[in-house]
Design goal:
By secondary structure, this protein is an alpha+beta fold. It has a domain of 215 residues. Helix content is 14%, strand content 31%. The strands form six sheets. The protein has a five-stranded antiparallel β-sheet, with no helix packed on it. Strands 9, 10, 13, 14 and 15 form a five-stranded antiparallel β-sheet that branches. Strands 1-2 form a two-stranded antiparallel ribbon. β14 and β15 form a beta hairpin. 19% of the residues are buried. InterPro entries: Bul1-like. This is Arrestin.
Length: 429
């Protein structure tokens, strides 16, 4: 490609000097002998602020850039359950970790490098669940779609079909060396609504629902100040994206999802109605409760009042085992995000099978290993003990003189006129 640019970013460096006692007494390494030098590195859950020193759009972007990214794009380390798998990363993006050993020699007051070797290490940080992504105005996602259903060719329409869904709970990858881990799964809920043109129009017969996951890896040769999006790729040539789509399942929903006829009173209130309602009444009303609104989508633009039909579909989502799924993450140069695609088809007379394709953000999280969680718990208790001791030492103390019983001859002096008596010194009150 013409105008190709490259960039690299070292975001973590941990150094551990060797104990002089581990070196040979002669400080000479003999050929043909094996020397063992123990070392321990603690990989932090969060990077130092200097790792992301560029300007960002918000504090939340900075916080995500300071989370340790997982190993990415190395076929020698990518895998799940001890098997090498494709992590769906392009050749243009790579995150690598390694332990580097160096042998230095002091020569004329200068350190000279004699030899060095790097051993790759796969890093799987823990990623907690993040708040759901706001899809308002985001063209990459379609959480709601409407489709006119016609009676046939050159005929009128029977009504409007609405499909709506919200972001499902994340897929959670178990920690390293987790035993007897079950399938990694979650589920999504698709809400359907059909607004008929008249009372004699029936809802369409449901067909199938196909689901797939799209893994997108965004990369850039300059530090990004915000989360990546495909809209920015057209005019910013320093950014790129690579997408891999994995099919999940195909469900026949014609027999599992049943249409239910609803009365006009079942319509959820629109925003104008909620603004006119008193907040105290709204809190106690079953109409404005979240459970009610979550099960019935808002009406279409063609709705003229009257009865309508609703249905719901529970969609199981299981992570396939033939790919290495990485947690959703954002760094200064590289990001990995996922989207869930649900393609719903219905049977309409004379028009084939019209479809509605919903696209939702899907988050992939990762748990910490059992060893890491226990280590973090112990350190948290130690830190809490240190803080408690510091609070005890630094807490305010009373510096008033201790209370003592005065002899009888001192009582009159101490109580008369507010004076304070000291042997040899009299201070008037």
């Amino acid at each position: 490609m013409s105008g190709r640019t490259e960039a690299s970013h070292k975001f973590l460096t941990l150094k551990m000097p060797l104990n002089p006692a581990d070196l040979p007494s002669s400080r000479v390494l003999r050929a043909g002998r094996t020397y063992t030098f123990p070392f321990v590195f603690t990989i932090p859950a969060q990077l130092l602020p200097k790792s992301c020193a560029h300007a960002v759009a918000s504090d939340y972007v900075r916080e995500t850039h300071l989370m340790l990214p997982p190993s990415l794009g190395d076929a020698e380390l990518s895998g799940f359950g001890g098997i090498l798998l494709d992590d769906m990363a392009p050749e243009m993006a790579k995150v690598t970790y390694g332990v580097k050993a160096r042998i230095m020699q002091l020569h004329e007051d200068k350190l000279v490098l004699l030899a060095q070797k790097t051993r790759k290490v796969r890093v799987k940080p823990a990623f907690e669940e993040q708040p759901p992504l706001n899809t308002d105005g985001n063209r990459e996602y379609r959480p709601r779609l409407e489709r006119n259903i016609k009676k046939g060719l050159f005929k009128g329409k029977t009504g409007t079909l609405i499909a709506q869904a919200s972001q499902p709970k994340p897929l959670v990858i178990p920690g390293a060396r987790t035993l007897d881990a079950g399938p990694i799964a979650t589920r999504a809920k698709v809400l359907l609504r059909f607004d008929p043109t008249d009372e004699n129009s029936s809802p369409p017969r449901l067909g199938s629902l196909k689901t797939s996951i799209k893994a997108s890896t965004f990369y850039a040769s300059s530090a990004r100040n915000n989360f990546p999006s495909r809209e920015n790729l057209s005019y910013d040539h320093t950014q790129g994206a690579y997408t891999d789509t994995i099919s999940l399942s195909t469900m026949c929903i014609g027999t599992t999802a049943q249409w239910v006829k609803q009365l006009p009173s079942a319509n959820p209130p629109n925003e104008e109605d909620l603004e006119r309602r008193d907040s105290g009444i709204s809190d106690c009303s079953s109409v404005s409760s979240p459970s009610y609104k979550s099960n019935i989508p808002a009406h279409s633009a063609n709705y003229k009042g009257g009865s309508f039909y609703t249905a719901s579909i529970i969609v199981p989502i299981t992570m396939p085992l033939n790919k290495n799924f990485l947690p959703t993450f954002h760094s200064c140069l590289i990001s990995r995000v996922y989207a869930l695609s649900m393609n719903l088809s219905v049977h309409a007379p004379g028009l084939g099978d019209p479809t509605l394709n919903l696209k939702l953000p899907l988050q992939v999280c990762a748990e910490g290993s059992a060893t890491g969680i226990e280590t973090a718990r112990v350190r948290s208790e130690e830190a809490a003990g240190i803080l408690a001791e510091a609070d005890r030492i630094l807490s305010p103390r009373s510096v008033a003189p201790p209370t003592v019983d005065l002899p009888p001859e001192y009582v009159a002096l101490s109580s008369g006129g507010g004076g304070i008596y000291h042997p040899g010194v009299t201070v008037a009150g």
